[in-house]
């Protein structure tokens, strides 16, 4: 609740500071009371105060240039600037004010801004006189005190003067007020000095709290010793009363006007001041009293300069007063009295206060003509229990005509004898509750008045008048006459009147004051016969009533009234008055009767009753009735059956009965009608009138009427019939059914009937042997006894029969019907007639209709809970399905439960899982065997109407729709069990799913650029997996599609590497082209369970493409078989391979053939050439030895060159041979030493050619040898460098 109440608005620092502070303080204290924060500790309240004041106010809360604030609990004191200096010092967190004689007053300033801490500050303070709610240093006080400081600068060393406000304790304090004078060296008085003391136990129980009113005196200058005196307490007041409290001050310097402040203290918070009103500050009051002060409900009346009176016009409940319990109750009424009558009024006055109070009760009279005039006091019982009366009523009270009696603890009765006209007006009761204050004065706490009674008094008048009234004045003989004589006068009961009735100058009757009539001689017999009545209906009404007027009663009737009055001399005088004549006319009586005859039936059955009713209308006199009979043709005279007159009401003539049902209704009854009773019946009514007087009375016939009725009697045989009926042609097992056999006509003792119930079981036909015939069940004999047959229903214990009193209804009842009671029923009746020789003969035999009774099984009330639901489970968990029966036919029902399952796909028919017979036998279905559920399925009966099915270690194949089929079995009355109904439950969709797929493969795409022959590292990270038991199959694919925007087909994707969930290479979802092995460029690595990497060594340009890894998550199902749960692909890794420039080094090192040719083939070639050179050298040396002594040996090349030149010269000088011979030259012909001249040129030419060729070959060989030598030398120089470079390159490639 506290959180819903907003704090007050921050205090405004501009404008009227005093007014702003008073408004803020009132709102803040109301806020503390409303939120309950007033019970908090002092530091908490200070924190709340500083927060509510606002930042600007909080900065100046301790000491500002003009205002000093002292925070103490919830009260704040404002001290304005004074005309002299005071020292404000700060020590240990508390500010103290010094000055005015050196006395210190604690003014604690906690939670002040930092700028107010430190050195002392000097402020000019002007005293406001008595400042309320300050603490005296060294003396904790429960009551507030204030200090008055002298305003004389030169008198600083003089002692300070202290004024102590007085207190008025309402209700709570029982002790008197004490005037205190505090001297400079004294400690203010404590609460034990008698200022506030506890009252008696009764007062404490009654009191709702102590209300302390404090008068704080404000003085400008005070030098002398002052005393403030407040009216002594306690004051007990009720809610709504007017309270005044006096405050007086003495001992001050004359000429100074005193201001007064009024405050209140509650006993629950004795040190908390609640300001009410001040003569100095208009905004002094707290918000609780501000409105009442502004509305002048609370005011201060200044009696003099040193005396003031506090006025609270209407005390409220929150002012801590007692409840007003005074009640004054008197009923509001209007009374009419006659002068001289007696008046009594009662007033109920009660109170429930526990205070010692007195009551005063009085009766007052207010004139209705002048409402503004003050009420007249009749009589009053004062608070001192002294009875007094008003001026005009003192003599009447002394004479005993005015009384006020206290009849009970709360009842006060006013009695006024001999009412006078001046007593007319509004009477009311007024009560006041008084209490005695401590000063001995009495105070009326409350006054209340009762409802007013209006009293009207009529003056006395001795005259009277007479009036005779009647309904009408024309009558017919035999009608009654009523005459009333009314006396109109005042105070009739206290006057003596006698009334005389006169008819045609002859007295009829005289009624005296005692109301005893005296009859005339002609009316005594008439009054004795009850034909005349004379009586006094009320005090002023007399009645004359004549029954059965006669023609001689016509004439004039007069009422004469005589009053006997006693004179002052004691004599009696009579005054008589007569009424006007009342003319009464009596017409002779004429008969206007009519007769109506009715019968119960115009055609009755033999043995029934013939009943006639004769009604006579418009009768005035007595009647007589004659019943007659004639045959249907009315051929002969009528036969008188019975007669009844006015003196007889009933008559019996054998089996004939006549009766006067009412004054105008007569009946005739003929019992056991016979065929000879049929004919015409007549009713003749005669009206009579009595004439004459006693003893010569005679009867005269004044009218006669008759009516006839014809009745036919039907024999029993003609209307005899039997019918059977049943309200329940079909019943349920265990129910009851009734069969009714109705025999018409009704039973006649002279012609009785015998009734037999017959039965043929269901399922048999009329021609079948044995069961095909009707068998007798029970027979009601004509004597009224029972005779059971051979066929018994329900073993004879569930069959009952009875009949009605009229022997027309015969009932067969069967309880707890079963199959044996189903069949056809028939009722047969035999009519018997008793002969004159007392023998019996059959008159007629009738058979009823057939009644088919079907005994069915009861309607099934089996209801299953049809709620369809879906359940999802993880594999290897427990699946539980309930089958609930919401209602059943009987408490004895037994159930057989069948559990079915419908597969999601596959078989269309629902398959039986298991069944539980009503006997509790358990049997598995084919589905349980097929799916190997015997070990995992469990069925149980949780309650009589709740069955459960449990699947342990659920598999994915267990998914499907499950439901139960319940059969209800009941036992028939014969003890055989039968199935009543079957009902299926709602469907439960069971989904046994694999673990939730949470497989995630990092899908971050990346670009990788490597140089040719470098390594390519492909990573595959699995941040999330579905289960901790998951295993993964990882494959890497590469897409080499030229168009990156198009999704490549499966043919364009190439499997790079694959490893299965069983950690077998190549056992994944694809088969890589490159088989893994020692020479493979692929290197697979699994650093953690979710981190995989593949490295391609020796990157080639053909390795460029978009790589991604394909991950398959595999789990082990409950049957220990691995299945693939989910698949996912990683992000693409785009690989670019930068080709190297074709240099000699790259060409040689990249081509194995060239590498071997350059670095290995030169060695064998060099060896061969070296051998060839050695051989040539060897031959050259041999040829040189054979040519020793000849010319200098030339190299072979030069030698061949020289030979060729010589031969060329020879050929030039030799003529060519003929062509014919040249063509016939054989090569062998040029081999001889001696050549023919003819062939010599030709042979020389061939020799030259041979030499040239040899020379060319030698040059070529020499060139090759030089080249080889150069290559060998060059190879030897750089072979080591090239080998190192190639080895490093090959290692890098690998």
Automatic annotation (TrEMBL):
Question: Keyword annotations for this protein?
Answer: Disulfide bond, Immunoglobulin domain, Membrane, Repeat, Signal, Transmembrane, Transmembrane helix
Q: Where is the Ig-like domain?
A: 324-431, 459-569, 588-712, 858-967, 995-1112
SMART domains from the xrefs?
Answer: IG (SM00409), IGv (SM00406)
**What InterPro entries does the entry give?**
Ig-like_dom, Ig-like_dom_sf, Ig-like_fold, Ig_I-set, Ig_sub, Ig_V-set, IgSF_V-set/TM_domain
What is the superkingdom listed in this entry's lineage?
Answer: Eukaryota
Task: Name the residues that span the membrane.
Answer: 1154-1176, 1252-1283
UniProt KW Hydrolase keyword = no
- Record field: compositional bias (Polar residues): 188-201
What GO cellular component entries does it have?
membrane
What is the official name of this protein in its record? Immunoglobulin superfamily member 3
Q: Which SUPFAM superfamilies match?
A: Immunoglobulin (SSF48726)
Bilayer topology reads: Single-pass type I membrane protein
Q: Name the Gene3D superfamilies on file.
A: Immunoglobulins (2.60.40.10)
The annotated region (Disordered) lies at: 178-201
Q: Does the keyword Transmembrane helix apply?
A: yes
Among Pfam families, the record links this protein to:
I-set (PF07679), V-set (PF07686)
Q: Where in the cell is it found?
A: Membrane
């Amino acid at each position: 609740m506290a959180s819903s109440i907003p704090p007050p608005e921050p205090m405004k620092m501009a404008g009227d500071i005093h007014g702003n502070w008073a408004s803020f303080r009132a709102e803040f204290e109301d806020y503390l009371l409303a939120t309950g924060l007033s019970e908090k500790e002092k530091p908490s309240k200070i924190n709340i105060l500083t927060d509510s004041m606002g930042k600007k106010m909080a900065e100046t809360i301790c000491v500002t240039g003009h205002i000093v604030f002292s925070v103490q609990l919830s009260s704040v004191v404002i001290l304005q600037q004074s005309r002299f200096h005071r020292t404000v010092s700060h020590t240990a967190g508390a500010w103290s004010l010094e000055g005015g004689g050196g006395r210190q007053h604690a003014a604690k300033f906690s939670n002040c801004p930092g700028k107010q801490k430190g050195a002392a500050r000097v402020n000019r303070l002007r005293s406001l006189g008595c400042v309320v709610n300050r603490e005296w240093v060294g003396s904790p006080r429960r009551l507030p005190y204030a200090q008055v400081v002298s305003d004389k600068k030169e008198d600083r060393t003089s002692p300070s003067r202290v004024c102590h406000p007085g207190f008025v304790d309402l209700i709570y304090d029982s002790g008197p007020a004490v005037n205190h004078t505090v001297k400079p060296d004294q400690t203010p008085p404590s609460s034990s000095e008698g200022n506030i003391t506890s009252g008696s136990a009764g007062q404490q129980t009654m009191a709702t709290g102590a209300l302390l009113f404090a008068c704080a005196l404000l003085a400008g200058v005070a030098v002398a010793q002052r005393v403030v005196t407040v009216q002594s307490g306690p004051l007990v007041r009720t809610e709504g009363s007017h309270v005044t409290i006096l405050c007086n001050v003495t001992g001050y310097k004359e000429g100074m006007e005193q201001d007064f402040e009024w405050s209140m203290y509650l006993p629950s918070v004795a040190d908390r001041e609640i300001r009410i009103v001040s003569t100095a500050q208009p905004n002094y009051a707290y918000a609780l009293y501000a409105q009442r002060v502004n509305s002048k409900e609370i005011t201060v009346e200044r009696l003099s300069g040193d005396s003031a009176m506090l006025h609270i016009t209407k005390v409220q409940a929150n002012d801590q007063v007692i409840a007003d319990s005074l009640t004054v109750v008197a009923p509001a009424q209007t009374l009419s009295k006659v002068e001289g009558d007696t008046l009594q009024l009662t007033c109920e006055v009660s109170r429930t206060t526990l205070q010692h109070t007195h009551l005063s009760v009085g009766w007052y009279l207010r004139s209705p003509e002048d409402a503004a005039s003050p009420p007249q006091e009749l009589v009053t019982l004062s608070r001192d229990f002294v009875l007094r009366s008003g001026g005009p009523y003192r003599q009447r009270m002394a004479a005993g005509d005015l009384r006020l009696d206290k009849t009970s603890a709360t009842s006060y009765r006013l009695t006024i004898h001999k009412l006078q006209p001046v007593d007319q007006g509004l009477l009311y009761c007024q009560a006041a509750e008084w209490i005695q204050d401590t000063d001995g004065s009495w105070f009326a706490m409350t006054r209340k008045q009762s409802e007013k009674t209006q009293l009207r008094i009529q003056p006395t008048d001795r005259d009277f008048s007479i009036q005779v009234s009647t309904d009408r004045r024309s009558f017919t003989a035999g009608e009654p006459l009523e005459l009333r004589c009314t006396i109109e006068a005042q105070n009739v009961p206290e006057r003596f009147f006698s009334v005389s009735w006169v008819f045609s100058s002859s007295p009829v009757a005289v009624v005296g004051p005692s109301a005893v009539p005296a009859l005339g001689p002609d009316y005594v017999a008439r009054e004795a016969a009850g034909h005349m009545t004379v009586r006094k209906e009320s005090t002023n009404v007399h009645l004359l009533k004549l029954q059965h007027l006669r023609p001689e009663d016509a004439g004039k009737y007069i009422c004469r009234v005589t009053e006997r009055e006693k004179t002052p001399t004691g004599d009696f005088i009579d005054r008589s008055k007569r009424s006007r004549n009342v003319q009464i006319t009596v017409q002779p009586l004429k008969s206007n009767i009519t007769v109506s005859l009715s019968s119960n039936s115009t055609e009755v059955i033999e043995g029934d009753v013939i009943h006639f009713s004769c009604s006579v209308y418009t009768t005035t006199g007595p009647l007589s009735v004659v019943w007659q009979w004639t045959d249907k043709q009315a051929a002969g005279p009528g036969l008188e059956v019975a007669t009844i007159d006015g003196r007889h009401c009933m008559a019996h003539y054998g089996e004939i009965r006549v009766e006067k049902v009412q004054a105008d209704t007569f009946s005739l009854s003929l019992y056991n009608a016979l065929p000879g009773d049929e004919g015409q019946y007549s009713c003749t009514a005669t009206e009579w009138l009595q004439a004459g007087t006693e003893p010569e009375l005679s009867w005269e016939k004044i009218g006669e009427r008759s009516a006839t009725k014809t009745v036919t009697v039907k024999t029993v045989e003609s209307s005899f019939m039997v019918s059977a009926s049943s309200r329940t042609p079909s019943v349920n097992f265990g129910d009851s059914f009734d069969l009714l056999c109705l025999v018409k006509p009704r039973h006649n003792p002279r012609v009785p009937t015998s009734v037999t119930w017959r039965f043929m079981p269901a399922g048999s036909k009329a021609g079948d042997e044995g069961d095909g015939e009707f068998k007798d069940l029970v027979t009601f004999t004509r004597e009224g006894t029972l005779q059971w047959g051979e066929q018994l229903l329900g073993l004879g214990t569930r069959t009952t029969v009875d009949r009605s009193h009229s022997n027309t209804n015969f009932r067969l009842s069967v309880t707890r019907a079963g199959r044996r009671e189903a069949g056809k029923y028939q009722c047969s009746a035999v009519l018997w007639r008793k002969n004159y020789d007392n023998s019996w003969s059959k008159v007629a035999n009738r058979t009823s209709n057939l009644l088919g009774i079907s005994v069915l099984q009861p309607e099934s009330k089996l209801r299953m809970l049809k709620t369809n639901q879906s359940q999802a489970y993880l594999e290897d968990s427990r699946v539980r399905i309930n089958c609930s029966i919401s209602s059943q036919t009987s408490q004895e029902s037994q159930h057989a439960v069948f559990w079915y399952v419908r597969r999601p796909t596959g078989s269309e028919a629902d398959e039986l899982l298991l069944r539980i017979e009503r006997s509790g036998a358990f049997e598995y279905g084919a589905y349980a065997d097929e799916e190997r559920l015997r070990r995992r399925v469990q069925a149980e009966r949780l309650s009589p109407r709740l069955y459960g099915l449990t699947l342990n270690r659920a598999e994915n194949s267990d998914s499907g729709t499950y439901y139960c089929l319940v059969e209800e079995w009941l036992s028939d009355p014969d003890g055989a069990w039968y199935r009543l109904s079957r009902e299926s439950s709602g469907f439960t969709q069971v989904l046994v799913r694999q673990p939730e797929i949470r497989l995630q493969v990092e899908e971050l795409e990346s670009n990788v650029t490597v140089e040719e022959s470098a390594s390519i590292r492909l990573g595959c990270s699995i941040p999330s997996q579905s289960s901790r038991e998951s295993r993964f199959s990882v494959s890497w694919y590469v897409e080499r599609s030229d168009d990156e925007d198009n999704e490549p087909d499966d043919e364009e994707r190439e499997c790079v590497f694959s490893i299965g969930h069983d950690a077998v290479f190549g056992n994944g979802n694809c088969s890589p082209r490159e088989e893994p092995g020692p020479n493979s460029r692929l290197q697979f690595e699994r650093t953690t369970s979710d981190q995989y990497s593949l490295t391609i060594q020796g990157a080639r340009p053909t390795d460029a493409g978009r790589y991604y890894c394909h991950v398959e998550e595999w789990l082990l199902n409950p049957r220990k078989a691995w299945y693939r749960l989910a698949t996912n692909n990683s992000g693409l890794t785009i690989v670019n391979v930068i080709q190297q420039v074709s240099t000699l080094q790259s060409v040689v090192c990249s081509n194995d053939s060239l590498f071997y040719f350059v670095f290995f083939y030169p060695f064998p070639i060099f060896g061969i050439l070296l051998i060839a050179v050695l051989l040539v050298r060897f031959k050259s040396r041999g040829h040189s030895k054979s040519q020793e002594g000849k010319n200098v040996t030339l190299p072979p090349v030069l030698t061949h060159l020289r030979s060729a030149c010589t031969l060329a010269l020879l050929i030039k000088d030799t003529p060519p041979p003929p062509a014919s011979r040249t063509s016939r030259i054989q090569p062998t012909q040029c081999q001889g030493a001696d050549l023919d001249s003819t062939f010599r040129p030709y042979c020389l030419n061939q020799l030259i050619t041979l030499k040239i060729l040899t020379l060319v070959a030698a040059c070529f060989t020499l060139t090759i040898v030089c080249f080889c030598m150069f290559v060998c030398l060059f190879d030897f120089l750089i072979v080591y460098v090239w080998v190192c470079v190639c080895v490093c390159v090959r290692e890098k490639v690998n």
